[in-house]
What we know:
In chain A, strand 1 and strand 2 form a beta hairpin. Chain A contains 12 helices and 2 strands, in the order H-H-E-E-H-H-H-H-H-H-H-H-H-H. Chain B is extended.
Amino acid sequence: MNQRAHATTVLAKRRIFETLISPGYYIAQTIGLVLAYLLVAGFVRAIDSSGFNYSLNPAYELIGRSLVGAFGATFVEKLFSEGPFLFTLYIAFLPVLLYLAVSSVFRFGLEKKVGALELLTYGPADGTSYFLAALIKDILMTAIYLVVLLVFLLIAGIANNLILGPSFYYSLIILFFLSITIYAYGIFASSLTDNSASAIAVFLGLLLFFIIIVMGSFTVVSGYVRNLTSVFAWIIKWISPLFYWDLALRVVEVGNWGMYFTGIALLLVLSAVVLFISHLTIKARGVRS
Amino acid sequence: MKVQRLAAALLLLLCAGVLFADVPVRTEQFIYSILAFNGKDYAGTFAREEADTIYLVADVDNFITVRNVFVYFWPITQDWKTDTSTLNVPFQGTLELGGREAEPQRLGMTPYTYYNIRGEYELNWKVAKEQEAEAAWQHYQELMDAYWKSVSAYYEKRAMYEAMLNELTVTITRMRDQGQEVTPLIDTLKELKAPPEPQYPSEYIVPPVPIQKAFILNLPVGEYKIRFFTEDGRIMEGSERRIVAFEKRRAEAIGLEVIPGDKWTRPVESKTPASVLYIDGSTDLYLRPFFQQEYNDLFYEKMRKNDAKGNPTLMKWVRIQQVPQARVEVSRPSSESQMILEEPFYVEQVKGAALGYQIVPFDPEGKHKDREPSLQAFHVSISEDQRVIRLRVQDKEGQYLPTSERQIRVVKPSRIGIISLILAALPLVVMIIVMARRSRRYTS
Lengths: 289, 444
């Protein structure tokens, strides 16, 4: 066990170092921050004497109309009631989340394919310590980016006389834990498959499936489509990280902090379960492709 | 020649196609006509054949009737409508209501009326059934009869007054022309007063509606099933529906209606303390605090209009009624808190090419004489220098109302916005430094 922990630490340090010296992480961060800048600047330009009016900014008009069409006016009203930051947080977080998750999945598949992972396991490391190291790297890089994003948005807020509302902070915290579960699913997809392409396909397929299920329950479409997604959601929701994310945000809206932290704990439990299944899969299938 | 005639006929046919607009297809349908209480008012909707569920607020009286009407889709407003002018056949019978746990019960039609009486609050809705409905309707009729009698008496007195006025004026003119003394007559003319106009009965905000018969559903929260039985005891085909009785999740919260001084027709609502009102500071604001309740978005929208869309996973705040005799505390960073009171205002159209409206203080003695104020609101002056204004609402006893805190922030596009863009590019700068250092290390 100690040997595995040591191997995990060494591998994690190496992976973090490699991430910091390669351009991908910085580019993903820049994309996220530039998107955040554009969204905040657009919001400021869409304010008139009666408040935020998304029709004043072409980009926001497109976003607003699309969101109203898909999720209804109440959704959009809630999304922007505290300012632009809640929407900005999710949009600006997406590039880094996808970069970290997909790059880890890709590398896992690649190293499995070329035999690098097998080589590692001849030493003190095993498949589990390898994926735990990747997870630690992803968690740390996510935390760094969330701090950078928070500081950036605080500065943008001060510059424009905007404030980050409570929903923003609730979402910021839960996003961190949500990303851990998403990375765990990335590891699970990698452990199931033999190469990078199929690992990425399985991972993105899973992610898309969870998104469609949660979006289906949010849409304003009536009748058959919603009923179908409701049935699917009821069956699938227990394994979807987005269900616990939604649950936590929904309960904290009415001040139920206990359930909010339960939602976070459930996300961690789900991550642990997915990682344990990945561990068993690797143990059963080995690290050779 | 024949070809020309044919072409002309074809052209005419084409024109006919262009000229005659599409007439919506009307289909005869069995519908449930619903008069539902929405937390603040009674509003009508209907459930057509395709609608499998009726949504009602729990623990209040809702009225349902069944009828055959023409139903059509109106593309301009994108909703379904009934054409009752051509076909409107109400059915008599009984309604079977069944819950998940309870045994089905048969409901008969009950005569009813509903009305809203004037009180401290806007909402004092009463539902009167059977004998009580008769009494309420009778009382209203008596009030109206008395009013119309007093109106009739007023017109008689007014006619007499005007005749007397006319007679006196003619007499004074004639006597003056003849050089006679008219002072006593002028004094009489001055003393002559027009009879007072009778006041419309003020007992009701909404008077009782004429007595009608309906199935009255006052259901606890839950899901139910209904079907309609005709007078001969047969089940009406296609009358099965599900009923969802829902309740508010939260109540007694405070919302603020915000009317900008230059956009009287475009008020906005601030519904939670966390919601911030960002404005450009170009005009003053007029506020109206109101009580609000929180409902499921889908259920509430469907209750108001059965074919409406809504989001089943979201809750929405619904404005119920204005907070009576409230006061608003306004805090600005550079000055002490100020308590503002509700005042009457008048909306004037802006003259000239600018168009639009402006809100001005109501002047009952001056230029707004004999007019009613356009709105009663709390005036909050806004200036671009004061970038944050905090508000809190007090009730008539001076107690701060929970969830009434709000922030108004004056936002202007920042000159230092470009710094944010530079900051956004900072990771790229870090990347260049890291890569340059590593490149230097390996090349040396």
